[in-house]
Amino acid sequence: AAKVTDKLALEILRANSYLAESPLLLPGDDVPARTKELAVTLRGDFCWTPHFDPVFVATLMAHGFLPIGTQVYGRRNVILLPKLHARRSLLQLKDFHARKKSRKEARGLTMSVDKAFDKVVVGCRSQHGENWLFPPVVECLKKIHIAKDLPVRVHSVEVWRDKALVAGEIGYSVGSVYTSMTGFFSADGAGVVQLACLGKLLVRQGFTLWDLGMHIAYKTSVLGARELPRVVFLMLLQQARANPCALECPPTPCAAFFPPAGQQAQPNPDSKRQQKHRAKLERRAEHKRQKAAESAQKASQKAVESVQKPVEPAQPSA
Q1: Mind listing the pLDDT tens digit for each residue in 145-154?
Q2: Positive or negative torsion for Cα 138, 141, 145, 147
Q3: pTM (2 decimals)?
Q4: Which residues are CB-contacts of 70 (< 8 A; sequence separation ≥ 6)?
Q5: Exposed/middle/buried for 25, CB within 10 Å: 0-12, 13-18, 19+?
């Protein structure tokens, strides 16, 4: 194993020697290269890092790592366990179908996106305990949630009955992939409606893959997800990262996602804004492609010129 020189990592290793069995990820790593390597060499699911820098964590998330927090011994008692599942539950959204029962359960409920991040975190902790949502993890996720220039966007999804939050989840999007991290519900049926409406919203807004993390039976029986090997998941993620999508939803009656038979769903009230955002992302991606092409062309031209440059004849010796 490579010698650890990061001071914070060394401090944690001294108090938690078992971590030496897992790969250490650090800011400054070539994340695409490390991901490619770990896709085939990682034993189990977890790496580890003591660092919560939002840019670093967002980069890990964009390359398929799910940021899970855990407690350890020592002065710095919370670290991240970036999880790269050996097998991942994934739903291709072209295959998504909501249960018919959801239409009835949706009555009186309203869904929104990114309106109550803090309240959703409180709801998740109330249902599951602190679990892996330790304060440093939440603080990092909230910074990514607020930021506009990182490779992923962290989202909160909310379902309301009147002004009461009755279901929600924390997740994130990169390209046309949406990843669910954790969620909760406090009213019968509200969690099922939240999943159904979110699935329909993802389809409507152009997402292609719904990443559901580790396998749980309902993800297959209710949502239709499939378990895929790590290498296959990462290949699909890499392809989907190139297709920018924006997850947006102002407060919208959940019943609007389930129109009567023969009618189409109501258009997204915020679709024009979403289209502008997608166009902006596409322009930015095209600009980067043009810059890369220009750099490659210049390098090629220099190489040709160096080959074609005439060689000066050697001077005869005296």
Answers
A1: 999 899 999 9
A2: positive
A3: 0.81
A4: 78, 79, 80, 81, 132, 134
A5: buried
